[in-house]
Amino acid sequence: MITIFRFISYLEGISYLLILFVTMPLKYFFESPGPNKIIGMAHGFLFLLYIVFAFLVKPEKKWNIKTLMIVLLCSVIPFGTFWMDKKYLSKN
Per the confidence metrics, is the pTM higher than 0.90? Predict the structure, then answer.
């Protein structure tokens, strides 16, 4: 379960960065909304998976509610999912 969550968090983080730094500038500066629709849909799906898997991993990692809230908050902060992976999911 943790391996799947790590994979989802990685993809969610990449999709978020693509939206912020690639598709949004394309949409607003170059009037090209197509990529934003595609990446946005993928990101929305990955975001929902991230939230669901955070709750599924919580008992396995024995997170308290504070840790869970931090993990969930990381999904809306740029680069947050990568930090979360290193801090809460890495084997080190």
Answer: yes
